[in-house]
Amino acid sequence: MRMITLDEVASLLNENDHYKLLTHSYPDGDTLGGAFALAFALRKMGKKVNVAVNGPVPSKFRYLVKNYSEQDFEPEFIVSVDVAAMSLLGDSVMEGVEKIDLCIDHHRTNTIVADNIYVDGEAAAASETVYQLVEMLGVELDEDIAAGIYTGVSTDTGCFCYSNTTPRTHEIAAKVIPYCDWQQINYINFVIKTRAKIKMERMIYDTMEFYAGGRCAVVYTTIAMQKALGAGDDEMEGLANIPRQVEGVKMGITMREKDGGIFKVSVRTNDGINAAEFCKKFGGGGHPAAAGCSVEGDLASVKRLLIDAAEAFL
Amino acid sequence: MRMITLDEVASLLNENDHYKLLTHSYPDGDTLGGAFALAFALRKMGKKVNVAVNGPVPSKFRYLVKNYSEQDFEPEFIVSVDVAAMSLLGDSVMEGVEKIDLCIDHHRTNTIVADNIYVDGEAAAASETVYQLVEMLGVELDEDIAAGIYTGVSTDTGCFCYSNTTPRTHEIAAKVIPYCDWQQINYINFVIKTRAKIKMERMIYDTMEFYAGGRCAVVYTTIAMQKALGAGDDEMEGLANIPRQVEGVKMGITMREKDGGIFKVSVRTNDGINAAEFCKKFGGGGHPAAAGCSVEGDLASVKRLLIDAAEAFL
How does DSSP assign B148-194, residue by residue? Predict the structure, then answer.
């Protein structure tokens, strides 16, 4: 296991010929976009490449694979893309894999076990690294490669809005947008909402309460609410961001009832309030502005517990 | 009145010394960001510059003027920034102005009367042109200039999401973000919502109905609803985008009751459905994906009229 440079990554990709690229479970825009972009680029170099995805490619990302089909060959070089930990590699993805030869990632917390490791913690997305590699390998951009890279960088940055965006992120977007239908990609990833999601947002708004002089907003969903709407886990994504969007709110708390009398709690903060420190009080953790924990109890008592802690904390 | 090149614009800005910069009524991020960025740049060149704004700078944009104060001098060269038509220049802005010497804009429909006109219809924002000028004039970027330019390009593109975004837009963002607190600017312009706005969105969701097999979504607000929430015109901004975000919707119609028994109707479309053509039927107009019209009548009859027209149109 050794940390290698980007030049060495490019050399490895030049030298080998039969690839299997691994993506992480609950695949998102970066693991899929980065892996398929790299696959299309390597195939353009005449290499054999397959991408392993845990389950089917989610329907919203089908545009990434419209020109992709499995190739029949024996993989000899295994590369993980955007995978931060071994536990995020599903069983089907790991089928026939004895060891990982190369890990390409951007999570500073990366713990993947691989012969060669390249983690660029400054990259907003693993797809930023894929763009750099495509350039270094001398592969010309095309729609498939560009769509993958744009999907990775735009989804991991909330369309260039989050703090992980850097000048390089914008420079890469400038290079790839002439080659792909980025407007349609933005529409799919940032505009469109299912009816169930809209109904869930409405319900969430109905539960919103303010504490600590308006600096803390609390919302919740129950199993019954989720069932009543027929909302899947997709519809629950992004709800945690709702309370902290309200003017004046420094800490937004989203409580989501799970089976077994447990609430999954997501905390999002503004203005330097430390969400991870807050969640530590309940055995959780995370990042300074986005953290989580689990709390046992009924709705009223869990809410009371969190509000009291928030009022003391703020 | 003559159309001039960007080089000629730069020459004019080099030659003159006493500026008044004009912004448009209901000032947005581009007219303010572009004008103040240009003002700070010209001042750095040792010139006298004031910016005329119709009314106070909206509170959300106060960060643009934290290092700005009026200078005392007689203006000799008048420049409009991001102003598409004379009617958009408020009386207070035009005080003491006899003629406009230079118009800098990006609206293809520009009808400003000025000695020299520069309209770059490819620019996503007038602030893109301001960036180019700052570079050509050899002024070094600083926080004030960068914050203005970033505000202009990010707000006019919905944070690099709308179709007017080009590679140049991203390239400019890459250049300016190292100099300004773009995360805070994004938070102010794209994340934060007032409580009244959230309540208004909830109410809007409650009115949502689907027609034409789910391809048309209709929402409305009434004067009574707006009053009940104490919502100002700021809270009404952006509501027109809500119905077309729903999966499967090709045409989103937002009806907003105004005084005098009139509904202001906003139409937003996806997938090439022509909103301007639809609104023309009611004496309105606009762009292919975003258009509007006014219809007289009570809620039920105006809604029926629009739904019937939409079902025939789709």
Answer: HHHHHHHHHTTTTTSTT--HHHHHHHHHHGGGS-HHHHHIIIII-B-
